[in-house]
Write a structure and sequence with these properties.
The complex is a heterodimer of chains A (about 375) and B (about 230).
Chain A lengths: L3 H8 L1 H39 L3 E4 L13 E2 L2 H6 L4 E14 L6 E8 L13 E4 L8 E5 L9 E4 L2 E9 L10 E5 H9 L3 H9 L9 E2 L1 E6 L5 H12 L2 E4 H12 L1 H32 L1 H10 L3 H30 L11 H28 L9
Parallel strand pairs in A: 4-9, 6-8
Antiparallel strand pairs in A: 1-11, 1-12, 2-10, 3-4, 3-11, 5-8, 7-8
Helix pairs in contact in A: 1-10, 2-7, 2-8, 2-10, 8-10, 8-11, 10-11
Chain B lengths: L4 E12 L6 E12 L3 E5 L6 H8 L7 E6 L2 E5 L7 H8 E4 L11 H11 L4 H14 L15 H13 L5 E5 L7 H17 L3 E5 L11 E6 L2 E4 L1
Parallel strand pairs in B: 3-8, 3-9, 6-7, 7-8
Antiparallel strand pairs in B: 1-2, 1-4, 4-5, 9-10
Helix pairs in contact in B: 3-4, 3-5
């Protein structure tokens, strides 16, 4: 049997491909939107995966430094360390700041850690140039996305820092690049007020005694100990909120990204609906253009099934071509977006399934037109 | 010589609307057309030519009466066959005012489309199509698209398409409407040749008086009935 769909597409190949490209760009945007969500999820997990803590000990009744303000005394590190079941513990600070750059300031999250401590938040596998911090002061490790070069000086607070290492793909859950400085520098940056501020506070009778604070204590649990039980003991005796790595991941991914993911999900759904409507309109127009031929085919006695299969096949092919173009478009452009886009094959297959269903739905308008086409309209005028 | 009946219509009635809006288009018409005959159907606009053609072509259901196509009674106050398209596919060929070839199929594909739907093998369908193209003297255009052919060539391809399923009847709706006098006569002579050589009954709707002398009979719709001149 003659493949009517293939013949029709071949006859108007240019028009078909341009249409498929247009719809493909929409589908490419859908893939990128899903990629943005995946990127956010991946970004959220980087910091947790690099620190590899079993427990996050934070200010009581707070969700921890990624969700809300949390302050604990640095010496809590030692208190936690001596508790039963704890293998290692470390104090960390997290602070959003803007680094001065040549063109415009770069927003970053500064992670402060004890360079002599037992838990190092820098994943050395991500280090693409230089080294980790070795001196207790005025050294900084930055992410390549910040645009700073090795050896460059950065003015931060009262001091000047030298870039000693560059990492790749280290970002916070918000997508801001991560930079690392020593804990002492970080504490000073976060908790030490300016001389004028201190003078002012002293005049008001307020003592600035909180400079030995950190934002969280992280700990690793010894083998053989139940993480939940150790967390329970810390909550009970130290009056702190304690989260396992799994809890922390949930806070980051569910609580913080939930709204964004819902927004992205909604955008994605709207784009899929728009794509379906566009495909339906295109197929409807393509069917309208062929109404005379369809009426003739029906008059000649060709079964509806043959004509309907042509419409459905054309719609499916349009969907498939659009999907291919969408993938090409998304893979060509995803790297140019400022935030991380993670394109995953299962997402593409999921979209493929959705677009096949959408194409079948879209073909209904054309099919309806075929069923209702009056063969007698082929006769006369 | 015994003449085989191709179309037999008895007491055919076609009304549109109901009650006060009832319009009688064909009222108690009876006629018979034999195989090998070329018949012109003439009537003023709106007299029911297309309606009659569509009823014979099993496209439009009559109100009452009987229609025989060859030896098969296809209508007796209701369609006897469940699938009227199958009757069209197997027994009837259509020719239109314009060629109305399917623009995305080439000449040979346009001709073989119907036989292939009738489960004729591709080889046999193409062989028959080539024979028809040779018969109509356009075999060299077999692989051309209709957009590459002249109006006259396209109309020949349309005739070949109408003949491709070995029909007993060809219903032609003003096939010469778009042609000049010389080409119109040439097409009618070709239809006459086909009617005789292929033993097909051809009813041709026409307004063109110049071609009327070439028909075997002229059928008129007068006062909602059929009369032969």
């Amino acid at each position: 049997m003659i493949d009517l769909a293939a013949k029709d597409i071949k006859h108007t190949l240019g028009k078909f491909l341009v249409t498929a490209m247009g719809v493909g760009m929409l589908l490419g945007i859908v893939l990128i939107m899903i990629g943005v969500y995946r990127g956010m999820m991946a970004d959220a997990e980087i910091i947790l995966d690099d620190i590899q803590a079993d427990l996050w000990i934070v200010q009581e009744n707070t969700l921890g430094p990624f969700a809300e303000s949390s302050r604990v005394y640095k010496d809590m590190r030692e208190t936690i360390y001596v508790m039963q079941g704890i293998d290692k513990s470390e104090a960390l600070t997290f602070q959003n700041i803007q680094l001065p750059h040549h063109e415009k300031p770069v927003r970053v999250v500064v992670v402060g850690y004890d360079i002599y401590g037992s838990i190092n938040p820098i994943n050395e596998l991500r280090l693409v140039a230089g080294r980790v911090l070795k001196n207790e002061h005025y050294e900084i490790v930055v992410t390549d996305k910040t645009g700073f070069a090795l050896g460059e000086k950065i003015k931060l607070g009262r001091n000047s820092y030298t870039v000693v290492g560059i990492t790749h793909n280290t970002v916070s859950n918000g997508g801001d690049p991560l930079v690392y400085i020593s804990l002492k520098d970080a504490q000073e940056l976060q908790f030490l007020y300016s001389n004028k501020e201190i003078q002012n506070s002293m005049a008001r009778g307020v003592k600035n005694s909180e400079s030995d604070m950190v934002n969280a204590i992280v700990a690793r649990v010894k083998n053989g100990y139940d993480i939940e039980e150790v967390a329970y003991q810390i909550r009970k005796w130290q009056h702190k909120s304690v989260y396992s790595a799994k809890d922390q991941k949930e806070i980051l991914t569910k609580n913080l990204i939930e709204k964004s993911s819902k927004q992205i999900g909604l955008f994605t759904a709207i784009l899929v609906i728009v794509s379906t409507i566009i495909i339906a309109l295109i197929i409807y127009t393509m069917t309208l253009e062929k109404m005379k031929e369809i009426a003739i085919m029906k008059l000649m006695g060709l079964p509806n099934s043959l004509i309907i299969s042509m419409i459905v096949k054309e719609t499916l092919l349009l969907g498939i071509f659009a999907f291919i173009f969408g993938n090409i478009f998304s893979h060509l452009t995803y790297d140019t977006f400022p935030k991380r886009i993670v394109l995953e094959i299962p997402d593409a297959w999921m979209l493929f399934g959705v677009i096949i269903i959408a194409s079948i739905l879209a073909s209904f308008v054309g099919v309806r037109k075929v069923i209702n086409a009056d063969p007698s309209s082929a006769i006369g005028g | 010589m015994h003449q085989e009946s191709a179309i037999k219509v008895q007491n055919l009635v076609k009304n549109f609307g109901k009650g006060e809006n009832l319009v009688k288009v064909i009222d108690n018409a009876s006629f018979e057309i034999n195989k090998g005959e070329l018949v012109a159907l003439i009537a003023p606009s709106g007299a029911g030519k297309t309606t009659l053609l569509m009823m014979i072509g099993c496209v439009l259901e009559p109100t009452s009466g009987e229609i025989w196509l060859g030896e098969e009674r296809v209508y007796n106050n209701k369609w006897i066959a469940k699938d009227t398209r199958k009757i069209r596919r197997e027994k009837i060929g259509f020719i239109f005012q314009a060629h109305y070839l399917i623009p995305f199929l080439n000449v040979i594909e346009n001709i073989t489309l119907l036989p292939l739907t009738n489960k004729i093998s591709k080889k046999d369908a193409e062989k028959k199509a080539m024979e028809l193209l040779e018969y109509l003297e356009i075999a060299d255009k077999a692989q051309s698209m209709s957009s590459e052919l002249s109006g006259g060539q396209n109309q020949r391809v349309a005739i070949a398409r109408a003949l491709a399923n070995n029909p007993e009847i060809i219903l032609a709706d003003e096939p010469t409407a778009a042609l000049d006098a010389k080409r119109s006569i040439s097409v009618i002579l070709m239809l006459k040749k086909i009617a005789i050589e292929q033993n097909v009954a051809i009813i041709t709707v026409t307004h063109d008086e110049r071609i009327l002398p070439y028909f075997d009979r002229i059928m008129k719709i007068e006062n909602r009935n059929i009369v032969f001149e």
